Amino acid sequence: MAATYVPQLQLRAVPFGFVKQALVWIIAFSCVMCAVVFGNVAHAQGSKIGFVNTERILRDSAPAKTAQTKIEAEFKKREEEIQRLGNNLRTAAQKFEKDAPVLSESDRNKRQRELANIDADLQRKRRELQEDFNRRRNEEFATIIERANTAIKRIAEQDNYDMILQDAVTVNPRIDITEKVIQALGTK
User: Fold this and answer.
1) At residue 5, does pLDDT exceed 90?
2) Is pLDDT at 77 greater than 50 in this prediction?
3) Which residue from 176, 165, 161, 156 is spatially nearest to 32, judged by alpha carbons?
4) In sequence order, what are the beta bridge partners of 62?
5) 0.70 surpassed by pTM
6) In this prediction, what percent of the chain has a pLDDT beyond 90?
7) Which of 63, 77, 102, 156 has a beta carbon 3.0–4.6 Å from 161's, enabling a disulfide?
8) How many angstroms separate the CA atoms of 63 and 183, rounded?
9) What is the pLDDT of residue 34?
10) Per-residue confidence (pLDDT) for residue 13, from 0 to 100
11) Which value, in Å, is the radius of gyration of the alpha carbons in the chain?
12) What residue ranges define each of the domains in the chain, with the CATH number in brackets?
């Protein structure tokens, strides 16, 4: 029975900001605890609290959509190249499986090594693309977050907010000012 080579052609999704998400939960928990501890004092003084959903800003705001389109355009050529390499590898693997019964043992081993090398190169290129894409997206998102923080500060001053929380676990919609921030980002 001839050994066959089956390349792994699955794209592995890298979790978006796993570490960031953990930090967000820690910060959110800390903010909630501060709100609970200082809530009674703040409530007695008539404090005004707002909430901003950063994830929604990074998904729905005009600058975020523009950045996403820009990044996708930057990486489109590399993605197409990787797709072409994946198709070539798939075709070569199918040809190998078809030819394997008539190949000598040394030719079969040689072609298996070649396919394994091509597959390893393809996986490396996919990993590099994903890392570059994530790095570039994080650069763009950092700029958007800076702009959002500036807009949040401006809104807080204009509307006399005492505290604005970002990324809390649960929030009453009446204190959610995310839409105001998205609108402020869209006007620049």
Assistant:
1) no
2) yes
3) 165
4) none
5) no
6) 63
7) 156
8) 11
9) 53
10) 47
11) 26
12) 48-186 (3.30.910.20)
What token pair was written down for 120? 């390893």
- Is the CA virtual torsion 184, 53, 138, 69 positive or negative? negative
Nearest to 49 by CA among 133, 159, 136: 159
Tokens of 144: 């958007």
Residue 180 in tokens = 């105001």
What the block records as the tokens of 139 is: 């650069």
Residues 6+ apart with CB under 8 A from 38: none
SS (H, E, C) the chain: CCCCCCCCCCCCCCCCCHHHHHHHHHHHHHHHHHHHHHHHHHHHHCCCEEEECHHHHHHHCHHHHHHHHHHHHHHHHHHHHHHHHHHHHHHHHHHHHHHHHHCCHHHHHHHHHHHHHHHHHHHHHHHHHHHHHHHHHHHHHHHHHHHHHHHHHHHHHHCCCCEEEECCCCCCHHHECHHHHHHHHHCC
163 vs 46, residue with greater confidence: 163
pLDDT digits (tens, 9 = 90+) for 116-150: 999 999 999 999 999 999 999 999 999 999 999 99
Per-residue tokens: 121: 């190169």
Q: Which tens digits make up the pLDDT trace of 8-46? A: 444 444 455 555 665 555 665 565 555 555 554 445 467
- At position 5, the amino acid (one-letter code) is Y
